[in-house]
Amino acid sequence: MKLSIIIVNYNVKHYLDNCLRSVKAAAKNLDVEVIVVDNASTDGSVTYVSTTFPEVSIIENPQNYGFARGYNEALKAVDADILCLLNNDVEVSANWLSPI
Known about the structure:
The protein contains three helices and four strands; from the N terminus they run E-H-E-H-E-H-E.
């Protein structure tokens, strides 16, 4: 069973870092795809994610389309049994995915 986690980001690299670290720890040994949709951040978010979390897919928008459109763009690209939409300021617990 595959899980896709989609996170929309705009200029909050510090929150995104915490979010991705917590998701990575919780998803260890699971079939999880993580996609970050970046809404034209100017804080270096895209470069940071691509170098620190190379396993994360990134969709770069040319402007800030907002959360709804960001999620919708990513949803077109996923093929998973379970979808999870997370805000970039969320930190999940280590056992968050244990029921999967």
